[in-house]
Design brief:
Blueprint: E1 2-3, H1 14-29, E2 38-42, H2 43-50, E3 53-55, H3 56-66, E4 71-75, H4 81-94, E5 97-102, H5 116-121, E6 131-132, H6 133-140, H7 153-158, E7 164-168, E8 181-184, H8 190-199, E9 204-207, E10 231-234, E11 237-239, H9 245-260, E12 265-269, E13 292-293, H10 306-313, H11 319-330, H12 335-342, H13 351-363, E14 372-375
Parallel strand pairs: 2-12, 4-5, 4-8, 5-7, 8-9
Antiparallel strand pairs: 1-14, 2-14, 3-11, 6-7, 10-11, 12-13
């Protein structure tokens, strides 16, 4: 369930507000906290309470220090006004020349620059073919509009600064034809991109995770993720991914123990790790689902295929007799059957990714006013009556 809180702003005591809001909801809605419950807090309110922000000028200052030559290539950003436009603007402020290399037909999380059918219809192989904007426009013209937003991201990104040149490739080393100084702007594939660039002879390579990994001119920062996970906060400022989240989750856990006498697990969550089946877009534009979580949320679920037991080992058994047989297997009285059921291919997803995704789906991307999510019963299993 979503837990409503007051609007959390810079300097607020976020752990205190989270716990007070949960206890208030418990009294008003008539539920009790239990050992093993899970509380998720969205990264946005944690970062906001920390005042973890950076201006375009602060971004530019760090980029300028890392690329004093006055030129840079930026490879494989996602197509997003909220996530990348201000970062690109800040980077462009720092240099005289910026070579922007876009992946195609889509970015790494599935935002389409144009349709794959259109690419192959023009006998273009996106795995091997790289080109400049003139050739790309000649091939695809005005067909480069996002299916849902209607945005032409080439046109939009170029409008942010007059020193931006745009190229198209899925080979990170292609940018070295234009500059040896590179920022890897991808998120989940950034490690590979940096390695390929260095092996191909780049003189200097940083990722978005390396920019504002330390404070610059009084800015916010994130030592682990830098600019990754940031969002537009205003026309000239971004909110960074929160830092010191390990301290935050332990603080909330301890406060809940004191307030309710229960051992509750806590995580900070950002984007969930799921893919929209219609748009084909992978939601996870943050570097991780959960930047911090308490110890009970480590590892993967200990799951088995109950349907395997029902359809095979206890085929023909029904009703209470079937329930009892499966419960005994789960409790260990039929360990050999449990082993068979557990070996049937349950995907080894991490608990924190599953629960963080559940939190994100519950809180949604809009303004529901529920930045705290309470999950009950997740760790219950079939052996419990």
């Amino acid at each position: 369930m979503g837990i409503r809180t007051p609007v959390i702003t810079e300097g607020d005591n976020c752990p205190e507000i989270v716990v007070d809001s949960i206890m208030k909801a418990s009294r008003q809605e008539g539920f009790e906290l239990k050992d093993g419950d899970v509380v998720g807090v969205t990264e946005a309110v944690v970062a906001r309470s920390q005042g973890n922000y950076a201006t375009l000028s602060q971004i530019a200052a760090d980029v300028r220090a890392k690329f004093p030559e006055g030129e840079v290539g930026v490879v494989f950003p996602i197509f997003s006004r909220n996530r990348f436009s201000l970062l690109l603007k800040g980077i462009a402020m720092a240099v005289k020349r910026l070579c922007l290399v876009l992946s195609y037909p889509s970015d790494e999380v599935g935002n389409s620059l144009l349709s794959a059918e259109e690419v192959y219809r023009n006998n273009i192989n996106p795995h091997t073919d790289s080109m400049d904007e003139k050739l790309f426009r000649g091939l695809f013209g005005d067909k480069m509009r996002h299916e849902f937003t209607g945005i032409d991201y080439v046109e939009y990104y170029k409008s942010l600064s007059d020193n931006i040149e745009v190229y198209f490739s899925n080979d990170p080393s292609y940018v070295l034809n234009h500059t040896p100084y590179v920022i890897a702007a991808d998120i989940h594939s950034r490690g590979r991109t940096k390695r390929v660039l260095r092996e191909a002879g780049a003189k200097r390579v940083f990722g978005l995770d390396d920019i504002l990994s330390a404070p610059v001119d009084g800015s916010g920062f994130n030592a682990d993720y830098g600019l990754l996970g940031s969002n537009m906060a205003s026309s000239d400022r971004v909110k960074l991914f929160p830092r010191d989240c390990d301290k935050f989750v332990l603080d909330v856990q301890n406060r809940l123990k004191e307030a309710a006498g229960k051992h509750v697990e806590v995580l900070v969550y950002g984007d969930g790790a799921f893919k929209d089946p219609v748009a084909g877009i992978w939601e996870l534009a943050d570097p991780v689902v959960s930047p911090a979580f308490t110890d009970g949320l480590g590892g993967v679920p200990n799951e088995m295929k109950l349907k395997y037991l029902a359809d095979n080992e206890f085929k023909g058994v029904k009703g209470e007799e079937l329930d009892q047989a499966i419960r005994e297997s789960v409790r260990g009285k039929g360990a050999n059957l449990v082993g068979k059921a557990a070996s049937q291919g349950t995907t080894p997803r991490r608990i924190r990714d599953l629960l963080g995704s559940l939190c994100d789906l519950t809180s949604g991307s809009g303004d529901k006013g529920t930045p705290v999510i309470l999950i009950q019963g997740y760790f219950d299993d079939y052996s419990q009556d």
